[in-house]
Amino acid sequence: MAVSGWGCHAFRPSAPRELTVERVDLVGDFTTNALSYGRDAGNSIRMGDDVLWVFGDTFTWADMHCATAAWSTVEQPTELIEPVDTWFGSLPFYAFSPEETAYNESRDPPECCGLHAQCEPGKPYCRCPADTDCTTRIALWPGDLLALDEDRAVQVYEKVQIGSAPWDFHHLGTGVATVGHGDIAARRPLDPSGSPLLVFGEGEPNFLRAVLVEEDSQRTAYLYAVTNRQDCGVDIALARVDLDDVFDRDAYQFWSGGGWSSSLDDAVPILRQINGGLGSVTWNDHLGSYLSALNDICTGGSALILRTAPRPEGPWSEPVVIDISPLGATVDAYAGQIHSSLGSGRDLVFTFYQPDPVEVGRVRIGRLRLR
């Protein structure tokens, strides 16, 4: 099993090791030259000797951005360097289109939309007529990054319409952006109409988790989506596409149970009604298998859920539950993921987001040692 310097691996059949975690340690928190005081998520990719980190909702003293980015070195991955605005806050990673900007600037939902605490059961908003528009803004949330080469990457992202009530998120589509070595902002390709390109649209799965595989000199992106949510139980759909065709919706294929189909209608879940989801997916050299990691509110936050599989489509193992409460993770922690940008052997770096009532919250960094 060979791993390139920029995150793609060649698949070779091998006898996988049993997944056993020997120890879990806290590395700490990120430091940054910016005055941002809270941000979540934390996807990463290695480019040469540097690591690009892309975060989700980021709060600065002047504004809130739905995504920001920073660079670090492989030797000092937690020490972030990023350009700042005039208030020394982080800069946005995605640029909104004129239509998205106009939508966000025009949103001023009535007061009733925010009074969710006293809502009667079954009503989405308090004291609002049924046809009240309670959406507040459009957000662009980052997903996984895939290396095109040592100096360029693509990133899947989700376009979301956000309402006033907690967890009121409406999926509008999945796009693919590009970013180069040293860039601090992504480029969103445009469709023929001049709007940012969405590879998957409203009502289709949000393929945001991804792993890049090289087989027979072909580089294939495998993308995972959460579907059919029933409270905390979800199904996992799987798509694949040649990396060179990642912007072409017609080039995608979907796991149909025993093979691949070009029709999304033929898609069959690779996992059904699992708790929370599958999470990040990486290849692990030491295990000789794919490894997923997840923590969110549905796992109890303080539990990091690991699974292994011989191939991207599975079969995926039963979950291995790792207690990360000694690292400060509470029941409302989320966004746990492993970063192959910082290794794929016995010692693995992972992050999770820990909310904080005073400082909004921060991304914390831990290390897993496999047996």
Please tag this protein with its features.
about 375 residues, mainly beta, Tachylectin-2, Chain A, disordered N terminus
Compact summary:
The protein is an all-beta fold and 371 residues long. It has 1 helix and 25 strands. The two termini are 19 Å apart.
The quaternary state of the protein chains shown equals single chain
Into which percentage range does the β-strand content fall?
over 45%
**What order do the SSEs take from the amino end to the carboxyl end, as H and E?**
EEEEEEEEHEEEEEEEEEEEEEEEEE
Number of domains: 1
The average pLDDT score comes to 92
The global form is globular
Helix count equals 1
Distance between the termini: 19 Å
- Low-pLDDT stretches are 1-6
CATH architecture: 5 Propeller
Question: How many β strands by DSSP?
Answer: 25
**Helix proportion:** under 10%
CATH topology: Tachylectin-2, Chain A
Please summarize the sheet with the most strands.
7 strands, mixed
Task: Determine the structural class based on helices, strands and strand pairing.
Answer: mainly beta
CATH class type: Mainly Beta
**Rounded radius of gyration (Å):** 20 Å
Provide the CATH superfamily: Glycosyl hydrolase domain, family 43
